[in-house]
Amino acid sequence: MRLLLRKPEITKVSDRITGNGSLRSRQGFKTCNRSIVTSCRAVLLPRFGGPDVLELRDNVNVPDLKPNEVLVRARAVSINPLDTRMRAGYGRSIFEPLMPLILGRDISGEVAAIGNSVRSLGIGQEVFGALHPTAVRGTYTDYAILAEDELAPKPAPISHVEASAIPFAALTAWRALKSTARIAQGQRVLVVGGGGAVGLSAIQLAVAAGCHVSTTCGGESIDRVLAAGAEDAVDYNMEDLEVAMKGYFDAVLDTIGLPETERIGINLLKRGGHYMTLQGEAASLTDRYGLAIGLPLATGILLKKQIQYRYSHGIEYWWTYMRADAEGLEEIRRLSEAGRLKIPVEKTFSITQVREAHQAKDRKGHVPGKIVLELEK
């Protein structure tokens, strides 16, 4: 399939803006100025290491689209902790044979081309979304490729920079709370580490679902998590969580994943509750022992813990990861558009300053909000 970049022609009086932000006419999308896109700029990771290994190259190949895929002209991409961890070697057993990689998961931009089976999105439409954690061709590029179900119309009231900070973190929280724990109105939810992007997303998603939310965070994030809707916030540097938290919870999302936070989180659950940690051991064990040994070993450890905690505490134990969820992304879009789900952006860099951006992200504690790379028009 040839990959076409088509610019929308907005000339007819009959054209109108639809509720999801796309521009349509009675005849559908009107396009002109066709040009073949075969290559573009991209930030490549040729080997693992520090920020200095990142290389911005011109003329990086743009693959042909599959029928369900969408070519997105990137306007902003946010940097997630997964990006810096992958750059440093996390997931080595999976990614090293596939190098060079393009990092990046989040994106906000415009649809440049669509595969033959794509129906929900149109050329010229502003969209946002996120790739799966194991994607090899990421979003640090002028033209990124995502599946149709990994994208949704960009929330109209916010900028590309603001939109790019949301999807990966919010979908990670969505999978834990909505897909796994299936939280419901009136339940109590504890978010361990509520000051980060996933934690803030979890607080806002749980509040939107009608839950009572408590959280732990650093002292500098107390005001932020309370503004996000948490009813109680404990500074984990100053207070004993087990003493400070009153009562028991239906769900605990642990974004820290230390042995101590796991122990406390499980002890604070009601029987029948769900403990979910972002720090599963699958990637670290496969990096250490290889896929053939590491993956079965990780599966065995997870199963052992699930059986152990189900028997000893009557709770469900999970390692949770982000995955594409069209329903979840649509709910995230709706909440973001209504101003009920926000992820703060601390600093922006040009894509040409990607090394500096990763250096800033590596300086833990210095950047409380998301860092976003902007791609010029």
Automatic annotation (TrEMBL):
<protein>
    <recommendedName>
        <fullName>Enoyl reductase (ER) domain-containing protein</fullName>
    </recommendedName>
</protein>
<dbReference type="GO" id="GO:0016491">
    <property type="term" value="F:oxidoreductase activity"/>
</dbReference>
<dbReference type="InterPro" id="IPR020843">
    <property type="entry name" value="ER"/>
</dbReference>
<feature type="domain" description="Enoyl reductase (ER)">
    <location>
        <begin position="49"/>
        <end position="373"/>
    </location>
</feature>
<dbReference type="InterPro" id="IPR052585">
    <property type="entry name" value="Lipid_raft_assoc_Zn_ADH"/>
</dbReference>
<dbReference type="Pfam" id="PF13602">
    <property type="entry name" value="ADH_zinc_N_2"/>
</dbReference>
<dbReference type="Pfam" id="PF08240">
    <property type="entry name" value="ADH_N"/>
</dbReference>
<dbReference type="InterPro" id="IPR011032">
    <property type="entry name" value="GroES-like_sf"/>
</dbReference>
<dbReference type="InterPro" id="IPR013154">
    <property type="entry name" value="ADH-like_N"/>
</dbReference>
<dbReference type="InterPro" id="IPR036291">
    <property type="entry name" value="NAD(P)-bd_dom_sf"/>
</dbReference>
